Amino acid sequence: MKRLLLSLVAILCIGLTSCKKDYTCTCTTIDTDPNWNYTETVTYNFTAKKKDAESLCSRYESSYSSGAYTVTTTCDLK
Questions:
Q1: What angle do CA 17, 18, 20 make, to 5 degrees?
Q2: pTM for this entry
Q3: Which of 41, 56, 61, 65 is 20 to 30 A from 77 in CA distance terms?
Q4: Predicted confidence (pLDDT) at residue 9 exceeds the cutoff of 80
Q5: Strand 69-77 relative to strand 38-48, pairing
Q6: How far is it, in rounded angstroms, from Cα 70 to Cα 29?
Q7: Which residues contact 17 (CB under 8 A, 6 or more apart)?
Q8: What is the model's pLDDT at position 37?
Q9: What letter would DSSP give residue 70?
Q10: Nearest-10 Cα torsion for 44, 46, 49, 54
Q11: At CA 40, angle to CA 52 and CA 43, rounded to 5?
Q12: Which of 34, 59, 64, 30 has its CA nearest to residue 46?
């Protein structure tokens, strides 16, 4: 009986460390073009493991520069 209980506790502990949780990825895009100067914030929600959520969130980051202006998107996972 003790072995069964210890096995169940061990499985539960391993399962809790790899659980999927809800994460929010907030991305802010800043465009410095004088004719189109704007800032936009978009939020994405993920239910995933932390490592997977970080990977998904980082895919939205980007940067583009064209001499006179720059468009940059940075993201933060919470």
A1: 120
A2: 0.71
A3: 65
A4: no
A5: unpaired
A6: 10
A7: none
A8: 79
A9: E
A10: -10
A11: 30
A12: 59
